[in-house]
Amino acid sequence: VLSPNFTNKNTAVFIVIDGRKIVVNCKGDYASRSFFAKNIPLRSKIKLISLSKIGSDFYWGEKEINSVTLTTSYKLSPEKKSLQNILKELDEL
């Protein structure tokens, strides 16, 4: 779940599954201002990543989940970053 100014029109959200070399592109739901993916294995360690562009500004959001449970809603709070910093973050994944 993201704040209202981050929508499927300006944001992409991904799930990186630790230790499996798997990246899942989440689908956006405009009405609920949320993104989702199905069939993520329970108890997996994952990292949620959001990438956004609003106007000429870029935003990066990240949240680590140590064990996926049946609780399926997580809040991301993207922060404004330069494109260079975002590319550095992606290289470190």
Task: Explain this structure.
With 93 residues, this protein is mostly beta strands. The protein is built from one helix and seven strands; from the N terminus they run βββββββα. The strands form two sheets. It has a five-stranded antiparallel beta sheet with strand order 2-1-5-6-7. A two-stranded antiparallel ribbon has the order 3-4. The chain is globular, with a radius of gyration of 13 Å. The mean pLDDT is 91.
- Helical amount among residues, as a percent range? 10-25%
Q: Can you tell me the overall shape? A: globular
- Report the order of strands and helices: EEEEEEEH
Determine the structural class based on helices, strands and strand pairing. mainly beta
The number of distinct helices, counting runs of at least 4 residues, comes to 1
Radius of gyration: 13 Å
What's the overall average pLDDT, rounded?
91
- Proportion of beta-strand residues: 35-45%
Which regions contain 5 or more consecutive residues with pLDDT less than 50? Answer: none
Termini separation comes to: 22 Å
Main pleated sheet:
5 strands, antiparallel
Largest sheet, spatial ordering of strands: 2-1-5-6-7
The number of E-state strands comes to 7
